[in-house]
Amino acid sequence: MNLETAAAKQAELTLERVGQAKKAIASVIFGQDKVVEEALVTLLAGGHGILVGLPGLAKTKLVETLGLVLGLDTRRVQFTPDLMPADILGSEILDEVPGGRRSFRFQKGPIFAQLLMADEINRASPRTQSALLQAMQEYHVTVAGESHDLPKPFHVLATQNPLEQEGTYPLPEAQLDRFLMQIDVGYPDRAAERRILIETTGEANVKPEAVMSAEDLMSAQRLVRRLPVGEKVVDAILDLVRNARPGEGDPNITKHIAWGPGPRAAQALMLASRARALIGGRLSPSLDDIAALAEPVLKHRMALTFTARAADGQTIVGLLGKLVERLG
Length: 328
Fold this sequence. Notes:
Layout: H1 3-26, H2 33-44, E1 49-53, H3 59-70, E2 74-78, H4 85-89, E3 90-96, E4 102-108, E5 115-119, H5 126-138, E6 140-143, E7 146-149, E8 155-160, H6 173-176, E9 181-185, H7 190-200, H8 214-226, H9 231-243, H10 251-254, E10 257-259, H11 263-279, H12 287-298, E11 303-304, H13 306-310, H14 316-325
Parallel strand pairs: 1-8, 1-9, 2-5, 5-8
Antiparallel strand pairs: 3-4, 6-7, 10-11
């Protein structure tokens, strides 16, 4: 078997596993197909995601299900105002060893997981938020001068409640940029909610089985980075990101934008489009992938001017829609 044949066989196997994973998650999470797809895209692209939605919309269940199906060591931290960095990262503990000598031992915190759910991340203090977000960027933590590597793979799915903003600490723009995607979780439609009522209030408690392992996920992530991207798609990514910046695109649109997405946004869109293609059973992304991912990848990396918000009634989603229409 030559290298090309082996690579094709590996790609086919990965496509099959990813398809099985999507199907297994959908068997438990009803009426949230777009949310499930975007969460899977985030993980396959090797990034972190922030889930924004009201209470009771299965955000926690989604993360737990992703961990089970993908075979990842999953932990959850409920963020509160009194949560300290050491509660997440870990701390040095003084141990007494035989002979009366004492030494420090590092006790790992919950961040040492392959999939961490940071529940209501905006309720923690900026100090605790920055400790988590620094680890997300650097993939290691430093305690008492010692560096400790995080597991591989390592992903964070954080949640935010769009209501009850009193007493919260909104994430600064520079820290939001570390999330590959913002995934909005909305209400299910009537048919899906009916299914939820029937299937989740009986005796049976259905749990999906693992269809992938951590090694399988990392193999899929490597495949995502190898997928070819056509020039037309690359140009579409550049056009979309650059036209969303003040002073670069159509003045009728950019006059409403206070600041726009940087190069990291273009990188995120490139990786996410490849991952979405893989989930769809394709080995190369298309313009449809860019159009579908523009909003979740870019909207948390942009801000409106005060005038656009207060007087003109503009929204980031509306402006992105206009930019996507121009992709052709």
